[in-house]
């Protein structure tokens, strides 16, 4: 890669421009979970398409239909942006997948800065969606821009396609169907799928070879026809909140054991090889504890901890809709309460089976209470886990690129979070996937004060440039 | 009461004016639980004082100090309005207690109309605070106005004092001290305390001789230093929400049995006499069920149901602050969650003892979980129950007034809700109290679509007029 110094120089000299573009993108409140923010999501997709079009890409905004709301109404899904740079049949073709929607964020959740105003503090760029996933998407775009700018000396070494969506944070609604529909058209000549929607485990760069899936449930308990005064009615009605707490308390034991029959039995056993890999990974339990601010973790050795983060399922209760949630006091008996909880999926769990296991279990637990209230369990997200072969040439290319840019061997890691579409890409196209993260280990995805460091954003762009160079030298299928 | 027809005519002919005043009062969002609404609370007290002053009352706005917020800051408490009409030592002196603060309400909670825009639908006046307690306070004011207007033929038969506060809905912060301070001044010549901060049990008018108290608790579980991504961290941390649900689930059994040791043991046993009184009360279980919209109640016979509504304690979990409570999905592990629950107090429970029982119990249950998270239990309201003697002449006067206006015998009932100050009035002044409700049984206090019917508002005013006439004939102490 003899022209590497030029490309590096190009990236370094465009740093401020990259940060400004990220600032423009973060300023759009593309929160896909909030229907009221849907116009912002549409605008975000338009901005993405515009950016790629201005670079000379062959760009389309693909209509993927509508989303049905719980009240029966429908709203348009954000269109999916596809783009193509280069169509040389002698070159490899990669398809970069990313998303530009974000998790909810409000200043009053405990952000130190306005979540939609990218704020640089000591080289960290704070803002909702900065790391998840706007900066990585932009880093791929800057990669293409850099090669284009230096076209005379080093042309884009592979054909690059993009699929950028706007519903990832709520389960990639509509994307599965679109991928299936484009299998024999847009995706037909793609050799590899590249995804950078995750982060490193430590300060050491990493390649990711697995993600957990996610089954997200609503458990709704409905009682009286409206909220009641707890003094006037308390003691005479069977309260939905009591029922809901009762059934939620049967999901998981204090020590983290999932109590839903069949879930633990489905999990693939931990192999000796895996155990050894986990042993070798750079991971400091003390710094992990201090980063999240707890005195004790669920497990106190590295292997158990990593295994339960990556390759075992877990249950989280996120919260309850319909109950009193404001500061202060209110003496209400909430009439209808909806718990939100999710179970992270791992091989060999199957979301369809999990849906039945959870529904049956909660219904049976609820039946034992003999409550007149009504329980309705629905699974609103059912995303499968994904697992790659770390011996695949794509990963060898990844190791070489990391070595070139950072001069270290990457950690081979899995991701506790979910990139719902990875499994679909694999199943539909039959092509191999690599996850090439550039986010930092402490970026605070989905939390208050999410950030992307300038270092990871800029060096990450260089990593992608190096990676395309490596991929160009893989044997064409 | 030979001038009764004139007074009735006066009230009927001023109906629209009364409704308009109620509309003006409901328009003020005097939500005492929300510190941001404190200016509205202050304005509400000013409006109340102004109204009483315009009627020629001797009015004071009594400064009762400041409220300390959880963050250590302080805000001014709404002043208490005192007023006096008449000081004839040959007459009885009554003191009407009421409040003009309200529970929280937002259109999106499920109100059919704007909660702060009094809306007349088929003779029902919908609005937050309409029944609790603005219309009853106004009905007492209209009572004085009516006697004043007809002064030439029928002067105010008793001296009337008012104590109107603005913090009732959050525990009457500061009022206890003020009552104690005014025991030998403003309250020194008061013979009876009249309170109309409750409702009838059915369509039959009622006199209320007891209320439950309320101990309101916050149980806070704090874990990581900030919210975490449930994919990235789920399985490695002991989640505060799991702990909180676990301890909440130990408060009450599915059948409504309170599980906190010592609570049930403290309750006064149900006497045969009480049992008989309950038997005689007009109360239709089927219409109660259909009103609140449930197919089954906690008990299916009248006596058990009324007893558990009025004279047994109950636990309600109102909600959780700090968890995800919005519609849609969010894959968060909340870092700090605060459950809000309350226990209604009855004779012979003692809030100080209950505080210790609950705190000790939750701490012991939490300790068994061996969680590294931190639990903090605080009691933010501790209001005592109140119980009167139904043989007292005040109640005989009440029966006579009800008979005169409605031509029926009133039900003698208790109230499941709390009027925190009743017990204080009794303890400090040593005077007798009567609760004379005019609110309807279906007014939806603290719920969506709270209302006061025109019928109850107007006939209730007539009841108060008749009641003052009856009280005037009680033997002066």
UniProtKB/TrEMBL annotation, chains A, B:
| Pfam family, any one | M20_dimer
Q: Which CDD domains match?
A: M20_dipept_like_CNDP (cd05676)
Q: Which UniProt keywords apply?
A: Hydrolase, Metal-binding, Protease
What name does the UniProt record give this protein?
Peptidase M20 dimerisation domain-containing protein
Tell me which GO cellular component terms the UniProt record holds: cytosol
Please tell me whether the keyword Protease is annotated for this protein.
yes
**Which molecular function terms from Gene Ontology are attached?**
dipeptidase activity; metal ion binding
Query: By its UniProt entry, which InterPro entries does this protein fall under?
Result: Cyt/Met_Dipeptidase, Peptidase_M20, Peptidase_M20_dimer
Against SUPFAM superfamilies, the record matches this protein to: Zn-dependent exopeptidases (SSF53187)
Q: Name one GO biological process term.
A: proteolysis
Annotated Peptidase M20 dimerisation domain ranges read 210-368
């Amino acid at each position: 890669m003899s022209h590497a110094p030029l490309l590096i120089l190009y990236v370094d000299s465009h740093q401020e421009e990259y940060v400004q573009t990220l600032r423009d993108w973060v300023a759009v409140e593309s929160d896909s979970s909030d229907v009221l923010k849907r116009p912002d999501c549409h605008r975000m997709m338009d901005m993405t398409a515009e950016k790629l079009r201005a670079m000379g890409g062959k760009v389309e905004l693909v209509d993927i239909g509508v989303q049905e709301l719980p009240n029966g109404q429908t709203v348009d899904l954000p269109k999916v942006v596809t783009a193509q740079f280069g169509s040389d049949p002698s070159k490899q073709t990669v398809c970069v997948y990313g998303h530009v929607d974000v998790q909810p964020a409000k200043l009053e959740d405990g952000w130190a800065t306005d979540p939609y105003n990218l704020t640089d503090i000591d080289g960290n760029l704070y803002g909702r969606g900065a790391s998840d996933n706007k900066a990585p998407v932009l880093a791929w775009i800057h990669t293409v821009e850099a090669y284009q700018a230096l076209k005379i000396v080093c042309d884009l070494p592979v054909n690059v396609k993009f699929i950028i969506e706007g519903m990832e944070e709520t389960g990639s609604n509509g994307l599965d169907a679109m991928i299936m529909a484009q299998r024999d058209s847009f995706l037909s000549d793609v050799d590899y799928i590249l995804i950078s929607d995750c982060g490193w485990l430590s300060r050491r760069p990493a390649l990711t070879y697995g993600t957990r899936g996610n089954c997200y449930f609503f458990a709704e308990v409905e009682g009286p026809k409206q909220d009641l005064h707890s003094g006037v009615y308390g003691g005479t009605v069977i309260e939905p909140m009591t029922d809901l707490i009762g059934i939620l308390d049967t999901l998981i034991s204090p020590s983290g054991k999932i109590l839903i029959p069949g879930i633990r039995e489905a999990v693939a056993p931990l192999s000796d090889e895996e155990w050894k890999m986990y042993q070798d990974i750079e991971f400091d339990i003390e710094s992990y504890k201090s980063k999240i601010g707890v005195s004790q973790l669920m497990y106190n050795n590295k292997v158990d901890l990593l295994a339960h983060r990556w390759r075992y399922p877990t249950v989280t209760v996120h919260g309850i809709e319909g109950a009193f949630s404001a500061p202060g006091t209110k003496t209400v008996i909430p009439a209808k309460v909806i718990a939100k909880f999710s179970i992270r999926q791992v091989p060999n769990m199957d979301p369809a089976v999990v849906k039945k296991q959870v529904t049956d279990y909660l219904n049976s637990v609820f039946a034992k209470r003999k409550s007149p209230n009504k329980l309705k369990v629905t699974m609103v997200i059912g995303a499968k886990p994904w697992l790659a072969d770390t011996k695949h040439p794509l990963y060898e290319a990844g190791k070489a690129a990391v070595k070139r840019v950072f001069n270290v061997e990457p950690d081979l890691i899995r991701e506790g979070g979910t990139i719902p579409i990875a499994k679909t890409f694999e199943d539909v196209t039959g092509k191999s996937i690599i996850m090439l993260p550039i986010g930092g280990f402490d970026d605070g995805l989905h939390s208050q004060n999410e950030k992307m460091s300038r270092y990871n954003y800029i060096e990450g762009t260089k990593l992608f440039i190096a990676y395309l160079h490596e991929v160009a030298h893989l044997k064409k299928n």
